[in-house]
């Protein structure tokens, strides 16, 4: 790739790094935020959940908006919104203003991230070049989350507001570079029949209600009627959305895209894999801090080894994909994750770090093998005018996966009575999720197809 192509990729990867580091830093800082602002436990939980609601609720709409309204416009505009509301979060002095800021920041990410991914899939030639770009993108996302844990611990020592102000500085730098590097595109043609407003409202409402219901699962049987009502209403609105899309002249989502077996398999796999990863990370963090008494910084440093995927994803994974094919590499990642999480099941009250290290290392390697190739599979072979939609579907799956993973382990932990027994019971959830994902992925690996290199293309290496 040319220097300009690498520079553009760096800017777009900066966006997903920003999103990952933002979430990870706040996860470490929430106890300090709660203590300083005097928040209740429920309010503190909503500081985290509001972002997930905004992200999951609008990602599908965000992906399609990039196709219809312009990828560059959506990317730059919503990156600016992300910057502004992250700054407002740092200035918040009440719980509700902080929750509002996090919700809007999540909405901004829901439009910004699919736009960035669709710019990659339309700017780099399909084949090894695009695969390399997507694997770098995926590795950067993981690196942002891993480094965010450590940086969040350090910044929290200086003051929790820096957890919000640091992303502002990074977003500003990305925005300035993006203005020069993100290519201008022709103004999208006016869509006959207008924008599918009914479908957009139904989709956003359904995703918001379903995400809310999933987040509430962590409460177990407490308030189960509200949880059930939210999920039922979300499913009802999903049915309304499907009905609207079938009748729309220009649907927000062409329902036929969901019949693409590889796309559907990739999205389901991403949901299960990301859900298992975040569920495990959440349980491991609670185990180290609540049961073992480790500080937030000590915990972050202990988990840092999982960030090895940021190095392996753009270096090792492309070679494996070229040699064995996308589906087989994804399956390998799932199988390795099953082994990794299973090794942590007998965790004891005084385990040494050496006993935990194999799981933490294997988890990072598994992420490097599975996540990037899942991103490729979720956008591969999709028409250019629907790349934003495919990206939105993929990110919707990952956001719901993270919410389901965290909610499920929290619910199981509570039902099991907490303590060491609760941790062990909760750790079964990630094992089950990746095992199910491995079964789904195996259906795509049967034919053993290898990655095809377009005629005249050459492999790109870092």
TrEMBL record:
Sorted UniProt keywords: Antibiotic resistance, Cell membrane, Membrane, Transmembrane, Transmembrane helix, Transport
Residues annotated as transmembrane? 44-63, 75-92, 98-121, 133-156, 162-182, 194-215, 221-244, 264-288, 300-317, 329-347, 353-372, 393-416, 422-442
Per the record, membrane topology reads: Multi-pass membrane protein
Domain Major facilitator superfamily (MFS) profile per the UniProt entry, residue ranges = 8-449
Show the InterPro entries listed in the entry.
MFS, MFS_dom, MFS_trans_sf, Sugar_transporter_CS
Q: Does the keyword Translocase apply?
A: no
> Mainly localized where?
membrane
The protein's superkingdom reads Bacteria
Subcellular localization(s) per the UniProt record: Cell membrane
Q: Which Pfam families match?
A: MFS_1
Q: Which PANTHER family match?
A: BLR6921 PROTEIN (PTHR42718:SF46), MAJOR FACILITATOR SUPERFAMILY MULTIDRUG TRANSPORTER MFSC (PTHR42718)
Instruction: Write down what this protein is called.
Output: MFS transporter
Q: What is the lineage of its organism?
A: Bacteria, Bacillati, Actinomycetota, Actinomycetes, Kitasatosporales
């Amino acid at each position: 790739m040319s220097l300009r192509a690498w520079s553009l990729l760096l800017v777009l990867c900066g966006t997903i790094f920003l999103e990952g580091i933002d979430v990870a830093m706040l996860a470490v800082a929430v106890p300090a935020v709660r203590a300083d602002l005097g928040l209740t436990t429920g309010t503190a939980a909503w500081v985290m959940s509001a972002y997930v609601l905004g992200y999951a609720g609008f990602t599908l709409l965000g992906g399609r908006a990039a196709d219809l309204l312009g990828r560059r416009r959506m990317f730059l505009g919503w990156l600016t919104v992300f910057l502004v509301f992250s700054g407002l979060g740092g200035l918040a002095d009440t719980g509700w203003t902080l929750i509002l800021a996090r919700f809007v920041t999540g909405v901004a990410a829901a439009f910004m991230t699919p736009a960035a991914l669709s710019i990659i899939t339309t700017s780099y030639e399909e084949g090894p070049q695009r695969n390399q770009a997507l694997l770098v993108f995926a590795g950067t996302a993981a690196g942002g989350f891993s480094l965010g844990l450590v940086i969040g611990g350090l910044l929290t020592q200086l003051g929790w507001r820096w957890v919000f102000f640091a992303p502002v500085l990074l977003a500003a730098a990305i925005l300035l570079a993006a203005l020069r590097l993100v290519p201008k595109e022709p103004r999208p043609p006016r869509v006959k029949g207008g924008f599918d407003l009914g479908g957009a409202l139904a989709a956003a409402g359904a995703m918001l209600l379903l995400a809310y219901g999933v987040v509430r699962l962590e409460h177990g049987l407490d308030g189960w009627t509200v949880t059930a009502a939210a999920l039922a209403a979300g499913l009802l609105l999903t049915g309304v959305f499907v009905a609207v899309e079938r009748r729309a002249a220009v649907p927000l989502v062409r329902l036929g895209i969901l019949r693409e077996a590889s796309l559907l398999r990739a999205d389901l796999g991403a949901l299960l894999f990301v859900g298992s990863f975040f569920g495990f990370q959440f349980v491991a963090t609670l185990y180290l801090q609540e049961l073992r008494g480790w500080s937030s910084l000590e915990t972050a440093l202990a988990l840092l080894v999982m960030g090895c995927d940021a190095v392996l994803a753009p270096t090792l994974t492309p070679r494996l994909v070229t040699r064995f094919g996308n589906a087989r590499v994804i399956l390998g990642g799932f199988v390795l994750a099953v082994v990794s999480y299973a090794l942590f099941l007998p965790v004891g009250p005084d385990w040494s770090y050496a006993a935990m290290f194999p799981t933490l290392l294997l988890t990072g390697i598994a992420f490097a093998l599975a996540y990037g190739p899942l991103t490729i599979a979720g956008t591969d072979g999709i028409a250019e005018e629907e790349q934003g939609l495919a990206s939105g579907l993929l990110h919707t799956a990952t956001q719901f996966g993270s919410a389901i993973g965290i909610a499920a382990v929290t619910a199981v932990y509570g039902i099991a009575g907490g303590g060491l027994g609760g941790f062990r019971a909760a750790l079964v959830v990630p094992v089950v999720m990746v095992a199910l994902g491995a079964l789904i992925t195996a259906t795509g690996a049967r034919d053993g197809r290898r990655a095809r290199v377009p005629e005249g293309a050459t492999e790109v290496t870092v």
